[in-house]
Amino acid sequence: MAKLHKTFRLTITTLTPLHIGTGNHLLRDFDYVTRDGKTWVVNEEALADLLIDYEDDLAKMAAGRPVSELLRPSDYQADSPLFRYVLPGEPRSEKPGSVLQEQIKDPWDRPYIPGSSLKGALRTALFYAGYEQRKLQFKVSDLGNSAKFAAQTLERNVFANNVSPGKAPNHDLLRALQISDSVPDDQKRLQIVNITVSKNGQSSGSPIELEAIPPSITFEMTLTLDGYLLNDQTRRNVGYEDDQLKWMRRISQVINYWTQQRLATEMALKRYFNWSEGFQRVIQYYEQDQLQKDEFILQLGWGGGWDSKTLGKHLTDNQPEFARLVNDSRFKMLRKGKFAEGDMYPKTRRAVVTPKMRPVSLLGWIWVRMEAMT
User: Fold this and answer.
1) Relative to the CA of 9, which of 75, 105, 197, 340 has its CA 20 to 30 Å away?
2) Per-residue pLDDT for 129 more than 50?
3) Is residue 258 within a helix (H) or strand (E), and if so which, with residue range?
4) What is the separation, in whole angstroms, between the first and last Cα of the chain?
């Protein structure tokens, strides 16, 4: 009996720092301390066990005093059980209690790439290409009434062929796409990155500090196309159309098309932002024809911005409708003021900066190679 599923091995290499957050914040001098140009993340349980014989220090810890007051110079050893892990670099802010956003890791503090994060990015790419190929036109009246569910009708048109909302999950094309979590990085390679929010070339707002996977780190995971859902009989029952099957079979080309559209849009705005250096490593793959068949580049995780998770250019090209969308209070796209046709949206970008605040890299760009396994 022929195998129903087609599985690919994905080899993922980070091109720029990658941050996929947990939503948790590590606080300076409480959850982590800095010393000798490194960031030491504290193992609170091990520290509490050590302090059992030192009642005064244990009482301080229980009372919420900074753990930095309880550590001695001799404690700062890379293999010390008092620290979960040690990272090169330090957050820019030296204020006690300042926030370091945590990278997702497994229970042994090994970073990995969740399959759900990659699938979400692929979904956006397929959505963008499918919306264009089906020659759909954006209208605010097609959107839902809340920011969270605004795009549901548009997604049904692309992925579920406009079935009723209650049936859409059972007919959604992305049911046939399954992606595993990656193998974790046993070497626990992470770094501290300092982020600036840039508006018209000038930094604005408070500093943002993250744990991130450095560039040139490789992960492996699997992507499976569900052969049962995609075979002729089942796909007719589910309602998958021929054009949808082409998107799935040519997924690397679809993703690269979406990425090229995003890069072209951003490079057109480089006069507003100092992005030339940050984009260079990504763009060279396209300019020098370095991508092979079944290879693609996309942006993943935090820092990609609004257009990495939406229809982007398909929305902004219809300037009257897009202005209506941004100014509609239901969708919370504008903090203050009024948005006019032709205005840039969004007006800010995020970039990794040096200690002297020079933008040197964008966030979350990865290179992916697909190899058939079955």
Assistant:
1) 105
2) yes
3) helix 251-268
4) 13
